[in-house]
Structure of AbrB/MazE/SpoVT family DNA-binding domain-containing protein:
Amino acid sequence: MKSENEKGVKTMTVETTVQKWGNSLAVRIPSAFAERVAIQQGSVIELNVVNDREISLIPKKKVPKLEELLAEITPENRHAEINFGIEGNESI
């Protein structure tokens, strides 16, 4: 269910059940929630306890490694060389 509080904060709410998973507890994240915050299997999230009462999950943005970025370069997505003028005539 979607709602908006008096401060204009939009929320989505669903009731779910905590399940045992090994020695831990787990909660399933509905696909609509995952899509909304752009997380998928393998996403890293920050888990916080707020005021000893609430739990918040914050998706962490993955910072790509240089090797990952370089691996995405193809002849099709490379730009042509850019001419910046004659070398040696720089202005100070």
Remarks:
- The chain is about 15% helix and 25% strand.
- Residues 2-71 form a domain with the Pemi-like Protein 1; Chain: D fold (CATH 2.10.260.10).
